Amino acid sequence: MALLVAPVAAIAQGSPLVIAHRGASGERPEHTLAAYERAIDQGADYIEPDLVATKDMVLVARHENELSDTTDVAARAEFEDRRRTKEIDGRRVSGWFAEDFTLAELRTLRAKERVPNVRPANARFDGLYTVPTFAEIVALVKAKEAETGRRIGLYPELKHPTFLLQGAGMDSVDLLVNALREAGLDDVDDMVFVQSFEVGPLKRLDRMVDVGLVQLVGPEGGPADEAGMRYADMLSPSGLAEIATYADAIGVPVTLALDPAGASRSLLADARAAGLEVHVWTVRKENAFLPEPLRAPGGPEQAGCVERLFASLRGAGVDGIFTDDPRIAVAPDPAANPACAAGG
């Protein structure tokens, strides 16, 4: 598919929020304090922790509640009997799940790179970092604010909240609200967005806290907690108007924001007409994650022409960009990759 081939010099202005997707996960294993701190040091406006809950009701940061992709749990003989198969949002998943471990048990695990074939340099950090709690992430942000003198935002996502409530009796909405209140981060002036692919949790949050709320929308399917509701219908003008009654922004994949030539789709204008910001996910530098016209010579791990993708999104006027590579998003340098310097 031809996508986003506009040269950087042709793209105008705009300063969308740089949202560090799972931290600077293009340079460190995702959802580790090291990844979050590196993202902050690179100038990210927000860091994004995905939140799941432990057996003893502590919020921790993992991309999924299943742990084997991002920790060494599968190699730990003492936890072999914790392996389970569960149905999560209509899909059968086998492995080890955060909600079956206490925090103390989870602390014995070590994080690892999720895609070592694409990010082999990150794999050298395997085994160095623990799974952080949300409280630790908040403490890191406050410490870095004191160190840098600038405000740093938090952009947590509640992962599978309805499954956790119905399947494990864990109310991650309540857990997050309590955590935000304890940290003094529950007011409209705080730099916090909370996101979910589900609808009901966001509506509950809208009644409980005054932070920004973001309805995530996938390229297909619909919310796990709303049978029969489709994301495509939610992105119609009437659907966007309904989202605006409880949320402040939508989070959409790049392909719903830009057409194959890199121009803005009508969704951006429709969202603004409904009073919603548009935050776009997820921009990554490696060839494996870029459309073919933006790939550089080399394998899937080679950095491609991601600066052009950032430029197209800025030109379209999106309000925020989720990225694994905040360093490039904050200060893109088209000359950094000679294979991209002449426009591909």
Give an overview in words.
By secondary structure, this protein is an alpha/beta fold. It has one domain: Alpha-Beta Barrel (TIM Barrel), CATH 3.20.20.190. Helices cover 28% and strands 16% of the residues. The chain is built from twelve helices and 13 strands. It has helices spanning 33-41, 103-106, 134-148, 161-168, 172-182, 200-208, 231-234, 237-243, 254-257, 266-273, 306-316, 326-330; strands at 17-21, 46-48, 50-53, 59-61, 84-88, 91-95, 153-154, 157-158, 193-196, 212-216, 249-253, 277-283, 320-323. The chain has an eight-stranded parallel sheet with strand order 7-2-1-13-12-11-10-9. A three-stranded mixed sheet has the order 4-3-8. Strand 9, helix 6 and strand 10 (212-216) form a beta-alpha-beta unit. Helix 1 (33-41) runs parallel beside helix 3. The longest helix is centred in the middle third of the chain and has 15 residues, at 134-148.
Outline the fold blueprint:
Blueprint: E1 17-21, H1 33-41, E2 46-48, E3 50-53, E4 59-61, E5 84-88, E6 91-95, H2 103-106, H3 134-148, E7 153-154, E8 157-158, H4 161-168, H5 172-182, E9 193-196, H6 200-208, E10 212-216, H7 231-234, H8 237-243, E11 249-253, H9 254-257, H10 266-273, E12 277-283, H11 306-316, E13 320-323, H12 326-330
Parallel strand pairs: 1-2, 1-13, 2-7, 3-8, 9-10, 10-11, 11-12, 12-13
Antiparallel strand pairs: 3-4, 5-6
Domain GP-PDE: 16-333
Keywords: Glycerol metabolism, Hydrolase, Signal
Protein name: glycerophosphodiester phosphodiesterase
